[in-house]
Amino acid sequence: MNILLLGSGGREHAYALYLSRSKKVSHLYIAPGNGGTDNCGTNINLNPLDFDSVNEFCLTHAVDVILPGNEDPLVAGIVDYFAEKNPSIKVAGPSKWCAQLEGSKSFSKKFMESHSIPTAAYKEVNQKNIVEGEQFLEKLTPPYVLKADGLAAGKGVLILDNLMEAKQELKLMIEEAKFGAASSTVVIEEFLKGIELSVFVVSDGETWKLLGSAKDYKRIGEGDTGLNTGGMGAISPVPFANDEFMKKVEQQVIVPTLDGLRSEGHPYKGILFIGLMNDAGNPSVVEYNVRMGDPETEAIFPRLKTDMGELIAAVVEGNLKEVELTYDERVAASVFLVSQGYPEAYEKGKEISIPSIENNVVLLQAGTKKQNNHLITNGGRVLSVTALEDTMQKAIDAAMKTAEKVTFTGKTYRRDIGQDLLKLKNG
Ligand code: AMP
Ligand code: GLY
C-alpha cells in the first residue's frame, strides 16, 4: 500500500514514523512534511488543499490511500472529491458532511442537541438576532464563551469575565468580522466547569474502537497562564478517565454520536476527537474534531502497538472489526519545545542539536526542516519529546531530562506538564 500523508506537524511525524515501520506500507509520501518526516518517507511539495494536484500526484505515484492529518482538507471535502473523481483512491477520513462536526460550531451544537448528547447550553447568533444574543448573555453567569462558527485556526474562541466586554466582542465578531467570515455566525455557550480531556475514537463506519485519552496543555506559560498555543505537551492515558468515567463517555457520547451520524445517513469513517469536560465524573462535550489532536497524538501513538498501516487500511476497507488495538501499558508524557516568542512573533532558522536518546523516548518533529544537512527550526512548535515509563512521575522526569538536552537558540518549554494530574492523583 502506498500512502500520501497530508500535513507538516508533530502529529504527522508520528503518523509517518509508525507508518514507515508498518509491514503493509510500501511507500510513504508526505505533503509537505517536515525535517522529521523526511526520515520516514518522501516529502513532497504539494498543497493539500489543491485537490486536482493531489489527484495528479496520486495517479503518477500509484498512491492507494490518502491520509489527511489535519482538518482543512477534510472540511474542504477531500473525501467527497475523491469518491466522485477517482474512487479507486481511498481517503482515510470523514466525509465533508461529517467534517462539519469540526468545521461548524453551530452544526455540531445542533447535532448534539438533536441526539441528546451532553454539552453546554448555547445560542446561535448572527447579524439578524444580535439583541437575542445579548439577552442570552445576560442570563448566563460569567465567564462568557463566544465561538466563531467556522474554522479560525484555533483562535476563534473567546472566554471573557465581563458582560459588557462579551457584548462588545459579540458585535465585533459578527459586524466587524473579527475572525473573518468564520465569525459571521457566533455560538454563545454556557461555561462548563471541570477538567478537560480529549478522547479519540477510530471508526470504519460500522465498528468503532477507542484509541485513547490524553490531556493537553494549551497555554504558553507554566500554571496554565499566558496565550493559547497549538499545545505545549500532553499526558496519556488520563488518570481520571477511569473505567467508570469512560463507560459514561461511551454510553452518553461516543455511541450516540456515531449512531446519530449513521442514522442521518452519514456513517463516520476516520478518527474522531472528542474534547470533553469532566465535571464531577460527568462528561460534557466541548468540541468535536475530525482528526487526531496535536500534541495528543505525540503521547498516544507511541503507546499504540498495533501496526499503523493495518489500522489505516482497516478504516478505508471497513474491516476494523478484525484489527486488535494493543497498547504499551506505560504512561506517556510529552513536552513540546517551542521557539522563543511563540505563539507571537519568533525567529526561524536556528540550528537544532539532538542528543542520543534512550529507547523509551520518542522525538517527533514539527517546525523543523533540513538545510545543507543541518536540522533547523522552521516554526513555532519545533519538536516534541515523549517518554514512556511505568509511572507518570517517571515519564515526566524522563521527558524533561531529554528536553533539557536538545538544544537550539531560544528553546522554550513548560516544565510543569502533568503536574496538575500528579497532584490530583496524590491528593
Ligand atoms: P473549542 O475550540 O470549542 O474546543 O474551544 C477551545 C477551548 O476553549 C476548549 O478547549 C476549552 O478549553 C475552552 N472552552 C470551549 N468551550 C467551553 C465551554 N463551554 N466551557 C468552558 N470552556 C470552554
Ligand atoms: N490539541 C488540540 C487540537 O489538536 O485541536
Question: How would you explain this protein's 3D organization?
Answer:
The structure is a single chain. The protein has 427 residues and is of the alpha+beta class. Among the domains are: 2-95, Rossmann fold, CATH 3.40.50; 123-189, ATP-grasp fold, A domain (Dna Ligase, domain 1, 2-Layer Sandwich). Helix content is 31%, strand content 27%. It contains 13 helices and 21 strands. The chain has helices spanning 10-20, 51-60, 71-75, 78-85, 96-103, 105-114, 130-139, 163-175, 243-263, 296-300, 308-317, 392-405, 419-426; strands spanning 2-7, 27-32, 42-43, 65-68, 90-91, 122-125, 144-148, 157-160, 186-189, 195-204, 208-216, 219-221, 225-228, 233-236, 269-279, 282-289, 331-338, 361-365, 368-371, 374-377, 381-389. It has an eight-stranded antiparallel beta sheet with strand order 16-15-10-11-14-17-21-18, with helices on both faces. A hairpin with a 2-residue loop joins strand 15 (269-279) and strand 16 (282-289). Helix 5 packs across helix 6. The longest helix has 21 residues, at 243-263. It starts with a strand and ends with a helix. Bound molecules: adenosine monophosphate (AMP) and glycine. Residues 120, 145, 147, 157, 189, 191-192, 196, 275, 286-287 line the site of adenosine monophosphate.
Q: Care to count the β-strands?
A: 21
Q: Ligands bound here?
A: adenosine monophosphate, glycine
Helix/strand structural class: alpha+beta
Here the CATH topology of the domain at 2-95 equals Rossmann fold
**What is the rounded Rg?**
21 Å
Instruction: Give a quick account of the main beta sheet: strands, pairing sense, barrel closure.
Output: 8 strands, antiparallel
Q: Would you state the CATH class of the domain at 2-95?
A: Alpha Beta
* Average pLDDT taken over every residue: 96
Specify the CATH architecture of the domain at 2-95. 3-Layer(aba) Sandwich
List low-confidence stretches: none
Strand order, biggest sheet? 16-15-10-11-14-17-21-18
Cα(first) to Cα(last) distance is 49 Å
Estimate the helix proportion, in percent.
Answer: 25-40%
Shape annotation: globular
Strand percentage: 25-35%
Q: How many distinct helices?
A: 13
